[in-house]
Amino acid sequence: MTAVRTLVVWCPDWPVLAATKAAGLAPDVPAAVLANNRVVASSALARAEGIRRGDRKRGAQSRCPDLAVFEEDPARDARMFEPVAAAVERLATGIEVVRPGIVALPVRGPARYYGSEEAVAERLIDQVATECDLECQIGVADGLFAATLAARRGLVVPVSGSAAFLAPLTVAELSPPGGPDRADFVDLLRRLGLRTLGAYAALSERDVASRFGADAVATHRLARGLEERPPARRRTPPDLSVTHSPDPPLDRVDAAAFAGRALAEQLHEKLAARGLACTRLGVHASTDNGEELGRVWRCAEPLTPAGIADRVRWQLDGWLRAAPGTRPSAGITRLWLEPVEVVDATALQLGLWHGGSEDPGTGAERASRALVRVQGLLGPDGVVTGVLGGGRGPSDRVRLVPWGEERLPGADPDAPWPGRLPAPSPATVPAVPVAAEVLDASAAPVGVSGRQRLTGVPAAVSVAGGAPRPVLAWAGPWAAAETWWEPAGARRRARLQVLLDGVEQTALLLVREDRAWAVEGVYD
Amino acid sequence: MSGSATASLAALNGVSAANELVQAPLGKALPVLDGLAGLLPWGGLRRGSTVVVRGSTTLLLALLAAATNEGSWAAVVGMPDLGLLAAHELGVVVHRLALVPRPGSELVAVTAALLDGLDLVAVAKQPPAAEARRLSARARNRGSVLIPVGGWPGADLELDGSGGGWTGLSNGHGRLRERELVVRSRGRGAAARGSQVRLTLPGGRAIDLPTDKPRLRQVVP
User: Which residues cross the membrane (chain A) (predicted)?
Assistant: First the structure.
């Protein structure tokens, strides 16, 4: 796994900064934070007075009499850091607070938006300085560990230069202040003569694992400039759903649509207040008789207020007008909308005139509304579109995607597919396989040998147990041994094209798998 | 006298001469592949019409090809076995072709909803006659083309695909390459005369046969 290009915003001496800010102290007072009577963090001014990590309180105060001392308080550090994280998040998405004082974010998106990684760094420094009145340092590198070290030096490490950047640094960097405590392990490495990360990285991973255990493997990965784990995206708060309890209960579609519209506006306002837009919407209802209905709507694009209202109306329409057996037995007494997946609202750029992604008059917009309406009747999987991808057989190359979901091919279409059938393809591809029987001139079944040869000459074919029809012409078998290197996914198939006589000629594509023929396609 | 009366009538809003009605305005018809244009009395699929396709799935796909290329959206209802790869090879823009494989009991509602928003709606299942007429009326009202597969009461045009001599396949070698498809059309109004076309698919190269020469058997080997 290659490491993600990461940008780290680092506020130096964060525990001290947080403590002085919380106490309302001027920044020119030397300060230190202590835990168990030992200094764990000190300001630059205090360090200039000779105060070091691990000093006793009495010793520190004797060296610097006007030193302000604070007790360690992780909760305070985190609380004070939230505005900084928010300030960073206003410029870039997907941020991760590594620990109070350090924010990491994948830099690819912002770098593309602002032009370069340096430009992002500059903007972030300005942003944090103006919004939070703080100084921060920025580092960019492949992987969080290298980026954090780069931030301490204020560097932008070139792409895939993390290993080279780390190599000359000392192994003590594996146990940073405030980070995981690996002092013993660093000491051990030193005594083994491994003084730099480069020397440590030069060991083979197997040796490290067998001698020093799992944590050492993680540090070894770090020393090689790899990712310990990918950054996790910030999760959305859960309290975004909106609820409406109609009285009297809703049992008519027009009334339900009216309620749905108001609810949609409410949800949109709630989301907009947090700068979010919805891409997956859960519409739920419960009835007087305790029935619970629910369906999640997925959308490729964030929903506009009208989009939310439309989906709620369609969904209620679908429920209230369902066939008598499946219709709710009483009116709807509670209706709630829940945004299942949200994105940053900047992704929702409303058009100037219509508030939609396309003009309402265009075919795509009209078609989309109609298809979504059908999804309301049949469920999200009721409407599909096909995506063509790679594969050998006619059904392997098509992936059906529910309407509104991202259209990704099932397999890479540009990869080589030996044994792929040439055009034309069969116009009918049975979704459920139809059994077939291939017979030779003496009515004995024809199979395929282990060397992918037919065991006889096809003379007749019967489909689904019907009467055998004489074969006019045939070709094949075309062998396809798929993923033979993976026992679980391996498939051995042979395909045969036959032209059958009759009132009208029928051309079939037959496939043999597991010693049985089946109709894979009909050229009709 | 009669000439001037026609002229003054034609000047009225909404009144047009009979000979203008025969040649449908281009904007009213959806394009089809060159080979099929001769079959359709309007040179394409007239908006609001109901055109039955019978006998060949390839013919259905070929009908959709040109229109989806021009930006129209199409849907196929009730055909879970449709080969989309073949559709792509015939020139259908697959991402503008929506499939509703299993409409179940909602067949009429689904088709009606699709007729509201899509230009071409193919339906492979036949609802009761009254509902079928209602759907045809809806298509007429919305300016979409309803393409029932199989049969339909009161269709404007019926296209029958038959024949199917294949070339390219021999005993043990070769592969299926091309087929011939004879398409006969029969319908109401301007289409009552009927016509037929011999297509070579894929490719849609058409060899137009005048309907007066009835030796169809010679065409199909």
Answer: none
